[in-house]
Amino acid sequence: MLPRTPRLLAALGLAVSLGACVSAPPVARNLPDDIRQADREFDRRLRVRFPVGSPSGEMIRALTAEGFEPSHARNSDPSTHVYQYERGTFPCSFSWNVFWTSDNADRVTDVSGTYDAICL
């Protein structure tokens, strides 16, 4: 039996491998195999695609067109908007989350993203 840390790393490797079989939204396609690198790259892509000052309405339309949906599950701050894209096949589930805030002119003031892969 593997020690706990290598088993966890093996499970994460399996999650990323299985994630390649799961339909990712266009902004999240071809992410690195390493889960930490994939998470950072997804966040970077969002910041480049939707820079501070861009209209939040355009971001909402683009995310919706890619299959993202509004989510309130992980949002404890009412001023932060959250859109989520979830997919999964047993034994794993995958989610891509986009968080942003906007000003009174409906311009993005901050944007970030997370990629999560969970396997049983």
Can you tell me about this structure?
- This protein has 120 residues and is α+β, with helices and mostly antiparallel strands.
- It has one domain (4-119).
- The protein has three helices and four strands.
- The protein has helices at 4-19, 35-49, 56-65; strands spanning 69-70, 81-89, 92-102, 108-119.
- It has a four-stranded antiparallel sheet.
- A hairpin with a 5-residue loop joins β3 (92-102) and β4 (108-119).
- The longest helix is centred in the first third of the chain and has 16 residues, at 4-19.
- The chain is globular, with a radius of gyration of 15 Å.
- The chain starts with a helix and ends with a strand.
- The relative contact order is 0.21.
- Residues 7-12 and 14-20 have low confidence and may be disordered.
In terms of topology, how is this protein built?
Layout: H1 4-19, H2 35-49, H3 56-65, E1 69-70, E2 81-89, E3 92-102, E4 108-119
Antiparallel strand pairs: 1-2, 2-3, 3-4
